[in-house]
Design a protein that fits this description.
The complex is a heterodimer. By secondary structure, chain A is mainly α. Chain A is 75% helix and 0% strand. Chain B is globular and about 65 Å long. Classes of the chains: A mainly alpha, B alpha/beta.
Amino acid sequence: MLCTWGRWMMAAMRHNVRNLYLIPYVLWIALFVAAPILLIVYYSFFDIEGKWTIANYEKFFTPIYLKMALNSFWYAFLITLFSLLIAYPTAYFLTKTKHKQLWLLLIILPTWVNLLLKAYAFLGIFGTFGLANAILEMLGIGKKQILFTDFSFVFVSVYIFIPFMVLPIFNALEELNPSLVDAARDLGASAWTTFRRVVFPLTLDGVKAGCQAVFIPSLSLFMITRLIAGNRVITLGTAVEEHFLVTQDWGMGATIAVFLMIAMAVIIGLTGNRK
Amino acid sequence: MRRLVQSFAAVLLITAALLYISYRLNESEGYAGNHTLTVYNWGDYIDPKLIKEFEKETGWKVIYQTFDSNEAMMAKIAQGGTTFDVAVPSEYAISKMKEEGMLLPLDHSKLPNLKYLDPRFLNLSFDPGNQYSVPYFWGTVGIVYNSEMLGGKKLTSWNDLWNKDLRNQILLVDGAREVMGMALNSLHYSLNDTNQAHLLQAKRKLDSLTPNVKAIVGDEIKMLLANEEAAIGVVWSGDAAEIIAENDKLDYVVPKEGSNLWFDNMVIPKTAKNIEGAHQFINFMLDPKHAAANAEYVGYSTPNKKALEYMPKEVVKDQRFYPDFHSIGRLEVYENLGKRMLAYYNELFLEFKMHRK
């Protein structure tokens, strides 16, 4: 982002009249992207009493925060993996259906509902006397604890993130030239080989974009760690929330946020399109 | 593009017109100028009839605004945009607000009804001499439990929670002071303990409670317990009263080792413009009849001794919500432990949350 900004600034200096139009954009980026990031970095160097320190960074490398970071990555990985496993076939079949736009709309529709409401709905569905347990009982399996487990946490997160995975993959599949698939089949490739050697590689950009859209926000999930996982899953997002709202240790909260930003930049760097 | 601009202009015009109308309406209702009193309280924490009565009695127009956490309330008062005349913070917030100069001293000569308050609830550590605050409601932290789900068992102490039969049966409220305090009390330490060895011992004891803990949740705890999602919850007495009103199979107990005694208190924040009206309001709420009506509406325990005479006997004699102080080991008010200690409490609590079964 900063890099793009720099380029814009250079361009702005070269042709100064036309670039008056750029002022709103540059102002926006400076005020709402660059300044907050710099503020977070700045705050991360203060301790709870407002004295300058690097102790927050030392503290991040203690077992508790490292374990929390590892936890966050592990759950984000699981959420991304399951989202991908469900979203790819979904997107694939969507492109084959008659009323694509309608089906796509139905998949996007849940994102119009507030996240908190959806989480509360799952409290009811997964509860001891909820729908899920009623079905389990009908099947003769009996009541199980579903709410406040790793399963419910990953399930609800996947449910929430699936639309963000389906959309880019769907777009990539739509852009795929069908004659390439026909050519592969004509030349004797099996359906599986066609998928593996032609379809999947050509939609890889969509998959990457989808993984970014899911992995990055799931790294800093909070709220549903409390509502659905009953604080049995603690991620870095939970810790940021707690430091800013409860302990008022803004320095430590900002330090964790800095690490989250670095992690996200690395992920974007690794999965970015190098063209 | 032109249509877009036109519709934007239309929206702006309509907004301006509505603003003007609402201003005129407020003015004719007496909501403008110097006739108002802004009260800043927790949601659903006052009998609305009392506000009407107060308005009729004194002529002030009450603007009633609500908050849902002490932190949010303090942030808004510190920011100073609204002229709140009366606010109702919890006791630990009062120490903080006092330190930061966010409160105005009370003029006791304008609060003759102070004499009706139970002396046990006056002159406490968070506000010696009640210079800045007057108690509004009080309560404890304790265990709410469903004895039907526990096979008729009764709980009486914190240490009962560590019983091996209670696997996955306990919901804890998501508060570092409450949960650490429970562990400290169960070891017979003070819940304001700052001795590191004691705190670490308490944290280790909490780790051993993990198999019994189903979840650590926020406000949802009321709904979850009323729906019998778990048999036991560690909650504030006010929440317990609400849960029991929803589901009468549940019971509440203040554990015998001791517990936290909390207060919500009326104060006059530094943003106040109508200081005269603020004193009148506080005095009005301290009137025994008004306090009794309020306590019946809200369901929390009133600190007004005289008010108890106007309330039903079975409420006032209920040991769960009006406990006899001698029967409980110790009831302590949270002291302001300072930011650093509070951060340490929270860190231990976070480590406990991360402890896996």
